[in-house]
Design a protein that fits this description.
The protein is α+β, with helices and mostly antiparallel strands. The protein has helices spanning about 20-30, 65-80, 100-115, 125-130, 155-165, 215-220, 285-295, 335-340, 355-370; strands at about 10-15, 35-40, 55, 85-90, 90-95, 120, 140-145, 145-150, 170, 175-180, 185-190, 195-200, 205-210, 225-240, 245-250, 255-260, 265-270, 305-315, 330-335, 345-350. The protein has a domain at about 10-55 and about 150-225 and about 330-394: FAD/NAD(P)-binding domain, CATH 3.50.50.60. Helix content is about 25%, strand content about 30%. The two termini are about 40 Å apart.
């Protein structure tokens, strides 16, 4: 007897080669789907490759954005298991400089307890013993499980593992048009900048993982997503001014974090809103704000040698009425455009943070599988990732 022919697994095209797209490619191939990921530049060349490399404990959001805080601490703990060796597990300090900071610290400590974030109060002497470069006039500090990682190497582990399982990763392939028939997305068309040739890729479903570019991508399909690109300036200084992640103990603001990265210290970040994520700029007054505010928690920031300043756009979920972007949540959302816009075969994932990219991918993969009639569990919670070097080995 001849065995019945098995129809091929559904094919999903992912538009966007940042951390979320990388994690989603892995999640989907582990569930048995065929995956092609296209990215207009080099992988991680957008927002993913430009952040400060903080593995959030969630404490920054615990007071005013509990949902994001819980997402962060859960992924913080999970990623350490599936990506061993990717993180400098250096912890973080929220430092109180004045009485207003200390009053906020009481709220922060309580909120950490409510959201499951391990936290402990330190005296000024204890904090200075851990970090001698802190402002000597600090009044207290709270220690939390922040950590740091390389902004490119963690996503490369998702890419490498997805590629080893059969995903096709196509950098420098810019999508310029959605193939839409009868209000259903059937694939993508675009231009391959490596060969200078146009391409078309058919799909059973297309996922828009374009981060701050998600609104532009969705418009190609006649769909809409409420994305507010919110750039921020980051400042890299020569010298490792701290070994832990140092945060100002107050509501999120400009220049209130210093992140150690190898032999550099990254001071961040400002916040404003734009319409076009390709037109950000690096305002000089924002750079100076990093020096001014950063030096309040680590005085050596003021005199440390300059290395570089740049900006990156956060893909925040919200309407165009935001003033600075800080008032918008850092949580994420998956949009099924059949339900939202009457456009089939098309899903968008946006919002979130680098820390929550895997969780964003899991949520999106659940939606994709539901739409395609596939029953398969998420395996990225347990799958230990290949090293980042494996991406270039094959």
């Amino acid at each position: 007897m001849t065995a019945p022919l098995r129809s091929p697994a559904p094919h999903v095209v992912i538009v966007g080669g940042g951390g979320t797209g990388a994690a989603l490619a892995l999640d989907l191939v582990l569930r048995g789907l065929r995956v092609t990921l296209v990215e207009r530049g080099e992988i991680t060349s957008g927002t993913t490759g430009r952040h400060h490399g903080l593995l959030h404990s969630g404490a920054r959001y615990a007071v005013n954005d509990a949902e994001s805080a819980v997402e962060c601490i859960q992924e913080n703990q999970l990623l350490r298991r599936v990506a061993p060796g990717s993180f400098e597990e250096n912890d973080g300090l929220f430092v109180g400089i004045d009485d207003e900071d200390m009053a906020y610290g009481e709220k922060l400590f309580a909120a950490c307890g409510e959201t499951g974030i391990p936290a402990r109060w330190l005296t000024p002497a204890e904090a200075l013993n851990l970090e001698p470069n802190l402002n000597p006039d600090l009044k207290g500090a709270i220690q939390v499980p922040d950590a740091t990682f390389d902004a490119m190497r963690l996503p490369l582990r998702w890419f490498a593992t997805a590629k080893a399982r059969g995903a096709v990763i196509q950098p420098f392939c810019e999508v310029t048009e959605m193939v839409v028939r009868d209000a259903c997305v059937m694939g993508v068309r675009g231009h391959d900048h490596r060969t200078e040739r146009d391409f078309e890729v058919g799909a059973d479903l297309v996922v828009n993982a374009g981060g701050p570019w998600a609104e532009k991508i969705a418009a190609m399909a006649g769909a809409d997503v409420p994305i507010q690109p919110s750039p921020g300036v980051l400042l890299a200084l020569r010298g490792r001014l701290c070994n832990m992640v140092i945060n100002r103990m107050h509501k999120s603001g400009d220049g209130d974090i210093v992140v150690p990265q190898r032999g550099l210290s990254i001071v961040g970040t400002s916040s404003w809103v734009v319409k076009d994520p390709d037109d950000l700029g690096v305002p000089e007054d924002h750079v100076q704000k990093m020096y001014t505010e950063g030096s309040k928690i680590i005085p050596a920031v003021r005199s440390a040698p300059f290395r570089q300043a740049w900006s990156a756009a956060r893909p925040l979920i919200g309407g165009g009425g935001a003033d600075t972007g800080r008032e918008l949540s850092r949580t994420f959302k998956c949009f099924d455009h059949m339900e939202r816009d009457g456009v089939g075969g098309f899903v968008t994932i946006s919002g979130g943070k680098a820390t929550t990219a895997r969780a964003m991918a899991e949520t999106t993969a659940d939606v994709v599988c539901r739409k395609l009639g596939i029953e398969a569990p998420c395996l990225t919670r347990e799958t230990v990732l290949l090293p980042h070097t494996a991406y270039y080995a094959a």
